[in-house]
Amino acid sequence: MSLDFDKRVCQLGEKNKLTELRQLISETTTKQLTETLRGKLTRNDCINFWNYLLLALNDSSVETREKRFTCVQCFLGGLRAVEVSYKQSVDSITRLCQDLPTFTADELNWIVEHCMDDMRAGDAKCVTWKDLLPEALLVLMEKPQLNINEIVMTGREYRDSSVRNLLTMRWPTAILTPIANMFSSLKLSASERLTVLSKFAGTLKDLSPMELPALCFQLFSMCQTAAQLIIPLLALEKYFHRNYYKRLFSDMCSNSTDLDSIDAYSDKELLEAEETVLYHLNYCTMYLLTEQHVSIMLRNFQNMPDVILTPFMLSAIISMTAVNRDPESERFSSSILLPFLRNVIKHNEDERSLADYSVWCRDTLQGQQVDLMQVFTVLIDQNKDGKDVITPGLVNLAFTLLKAQNAPKLNTLAIAFLTKFIRRRFIFGKGIIKRIAEWMIVDQQQNQFSECLTMLSVADTYTVSECLDTITIVMEDFLWLPGEQSMRMMNFILPLLKLSNRVRDALIDVLRKAMNKDYRTRCMAIFGFCMILKQLNNSNSVRQSQNASSFCTQHNISGYSMMTQITLGSRNNPQRNFDMLTLEIIGLLRSCFEQPLDIRLTLYENLQRAVELNAKLVPHVLQFADFHFRSFFDTPSEDEVIDDLDCKFDIHYDKMVSEEHEQLQLKDNLGRLVQFLAYCLAIFERAPYGCDVTEMQRLLTLCTQRLVANRLPLEAASAPATQLKCALLQQQLNLIEGLISHAVLSSKPSNQAIKQVLPLFKQHQQLLKGLNSLADAAKKSQKHFKQPLSHDSSAAANQSISAAKIKQICTQPDNIWDLAIIEKLLHLLHDDLVPFADAAHTTALRSYEPLVRYVLELAALKVQAIRLEPDFKQLSYSKRTLKLLTDIAKVVYERCIRRLPALWREFDIESAALAAQCFMECVHTAHVTYYKRFNEFVKGFDFAVISQQKQVSYVLQHVLDEYMKEPKDDDDAIAKHAYGAKLPVYLLETLELLYDHISYEERAAIDSYTWLLSFCRSYELPNANMAVVHRLLFTQRQKTHSGAFFDSIARQIGAVLGRQNDDVETAPDLGLQSLNMQTVGSCLQYLYAALQKQMEDVDYFIVKANNLSYKCNVVPEADRVYWRGNLDALVRSICTQMILISRTLLELTNVCIPLGSHMDGLMKLLIQLYATMKNLARHYLSCATAEGSIKSTKFELLLRDVGKPLPVNIYELIAYVEHNILDDQAQQPASKRKPQSERAKVLRETRYIPKVILAMESFNKHVILLSKKAKSIDRLANYMHLGAVRDFNIKSGDLRDMIERTYSQSSQIEVSASSLEQEAESEQEQQEESANEEESEEEQPQPVKRAASKAQRRRRVVVSDAEEQAEDENQPPPQPAVKPTAGKAQRRRRTAASDEEQEAEPLPIVKSIAGNAQRRRRATAASDADESQPKRRRGRPTKK
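The chain above was modelled as a monomer; its predicted structure follows.
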């Protein structure tokens, strides 16, 4: 029957016969309806029957409603018992929801409870409640009044109660996704949505990777704001970190290969789930949230790089950037999130630096720094495996880091990332290289782009060489770019020359064009040609030719003979290609011999570097330079000469320098040419072939012999000093230096070349002495022409300029030796045995003190010059320069520094000081230029680990101890010697650099602080320059120890300078003997710098605490206890540090610090202190919600130290400043006093006082607000200082005495005894008669007056007893009497005297609050006081 019944129902329904259908249903019993419905549940046509059944039962009769509700109960119960398809269940529930508005409240309540019961059951196959429950609640919410279980409530109250029940319910893990879908359909409020998201965030940890993406899609769809989105993102970050990244980072940091571990989920599943989650995140937020919305929310995590810089969180943020979604049309420069990530990365690098230099920062951070290169490596590996969701955004993040200005750490990170990325994903190489090349051309002042291209070229040469179009465009731009910029950009082409002939030929064509351009472009062309020669060999020197049948491919082989060309171009020559291309390039460079001096010097320098790196070039280069070198000498050939010493030998100095039309022309430098050829000859001797150098060596030998025998005429260093004479002396000096270089480079134990060094150097010293005498003459000439010019002023001015140029040439002679020559000379002068010279010939060199001093001094200058070299030389990547620097440091350290006490006692104090200076410059240059390889540099000269000796830092400490033990009272004491006083300063500066590279984990770091403290306690410093030891002490203290220290330093400074209040009991100081009147000034500045850095760090951690407080509010409830514990620990650490800083400043404010920069530094520290404490109070203000919110912190202890004692000291300090200013002015006689300068001094010395008061009051205001919010006014407010009233009253007696003193000094008028009121009237009459005098007398610092008036409006004015009595009697206060004056002339004199006294003796003025009549009367007295006394600045206590 049931079968016939359901067919009849469907037929009637299909024919839309509702009347017959309702009659049929009414005639059918409820039991029959429920049985038919149960039978239809599993059939496909159930939805049709269910639809027509509900249509028939949609009637207003009670019986029909009861029958419908029974059918609904049966249907919902059947869905729980029978498994139906998802489509059928959704369609059935959707049809039921259409009739829900016609159900009664009790029926809807039953449906809601039924749905909740299904949720508690947790059956993943029965989730129909996710669509039914929201609709039922929405219907009930519209009801004005409900009676549920005999409880009357509104529909809104019922809905809120049901939502609360849902939130407190335990959600089965199997149905989390349907629950999220259900909540998405509910119209949740913002607070409810946050609660729901927070609860879901706590349940994510129990899900499998396969279940995660669907739930995340629902959660992302539920989020309407960025503040809601961060909750699931943080939970997902924790999920992926715990299940995947934690283990991955651990494996990357360890060398173990444990393959037996069994994990809950595979890496593939987790990576696929993460990629799907990122896709859903991008899809759900694409049109809902902009980058600005996300960045506003993420600013709460800007100082928490450990939260942002994780692989998942970084990927999530990048996926929401516009440039990642649409890389073709969007420009990364308009992105907001990428600069945010750049700032977070910068903060992470700053935290790494903070952890290295400060124990407090290290303990507070608790190792939370992120190794960003590990994160980038993980992201690159995932990207290679197919995770391309964030590839465009990741590359653009690297571009953002690369474009950061003045951020070398960020640039280095970007370069390292791009290098790894292009190696893995070379398909992106062309686009990346093209973009960087464009920026390199456009932004020429930034060096990171050329450096990036160079590193990419070295790391992946093949990929870069394929970008021929980009490289060609860059090379064409070399023709119009500045020369130095082009040379810097050219370095990235160097690695490509070995692989790509097309790149090399294109570069040669560009450089050939550049040879005809301006001076700087020609220098660039020379640099480029020499760069090609460095990389040239036979395998990569084949030229591209347009004629395939031609084997002679160069355009021009220069001016060599036809026989040479035929020989070199022969196919039988194995080096044919190399020789021909080398000759072609050298032929292009031959024109440089006709160019100005700078072009030639550039040629010598770069060709020398090319020859050192490519020895095959030597025969060609020697032939190239042979003719040019011979042209400087006038001597017969070797065949025509019988005896070389008696033959004619002259040097053509006119080819080097000449003077035309009173203009000096420098053409060439023979000394540099000789040194360049000396290098070539030294390399040629290793494999002497392909060139005849006999004549060249003969000329060098002959020149050396003539100089040694003093048979070569030199320029006389006699007055008058001319530019030509000085230039000739400079050329001869350089020639001697070049010959010394040749002697050193060609020296062997078998020859006696080194024997010529000492006589040549003596000739050098003689010329140098002559230059110095010319410098003295030029100095006197310059002083003479500084006198008032005569009628021929233009000629005198020209002579003065000429004298200045001569002085510059004479006092700054340029030495041509390079590091290689200096390194060999140091070996000769300090080593007992050298492999390239006989010991018998080196003894005389080592005993000649001027030579030792000159080489050491020059070595220091040359090593210092490395730091000043232009960027295009790429010295920071030069292994050769680092080796030479290490060798120089090794010689000086082993032979001088380790035995420095013996050196200054037995040899020479000046040499010892110069050795210390040279070693310091070596360490400094390595610190600046080779910072990352500094430890390698130290290991190159310090063999403490191998030889079981003391490390270099211990050796320097021992030398300093020996220095301090030297007698200081003798006349010839080392401390009284000019160079002896510099020696310990050099050693201390070297120690400072070495300490900077000693990790806090090493034993040497703690030992360094122990030694520094002992050194300062044991020795009194002989000069003020040694006070740098205090900076070392403060730095190492912060690096290795924590706790109270600087307050002891402040107490000892007080003992040296004196204290304002000696009655205060002070703890014992550190007893530093090094702290005295000579060193206290620099010690104060070092102390200020240390405290300022500490407060800056505290400010950073306060912001970090604010970020952590925000995180505590968005993490799941289960994690809040942990994060709040971290927050409490962080804030306690901040308060502890602030207590130590405030105690130090409490001691400093009691010290009689001299006015000027020292007092200004203290005022700035006080302003910064109160600003930092205000930020800390604001943090508590944002966190405090109840009385007990700050009971467990150290904030009360901080207020106890800062609240009252520090303001008391500050007010006394302000009074001390003001009285010192007045006393200094009063001590001067009236005739010598300058009112304008005194006024400027007052303003200058007191300009920070109002700022200190303002900062103090602002902090007090925030503490009061905190007390009110925390309901603990009595506890916190009692710690605060109420402040001092900064308004004053004029004491009539003091004013009268001052006026009498003023009149007596003028000695032109008698002292009057009339009232101030009458004096004011007379002054007013005088002002009306002369307007000019009125303007001059009324000049007052207006900002001070306005500040005082504003302060008076804020404060209660303190008045005298007489004024209070007058106010009670409604009478004006008594005025001091002043006698009337007579005559306008006397008034003018008195006005001038008053104005002078006003400028010289600043006193406070009065402005009190009273009735209108009293104000008018007091205004007269105030104006009178204004004429005789300027306003006193705020900051001094009220006089009683």
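The CA atoms of residues 694 and 997 lie 52 Å apart.
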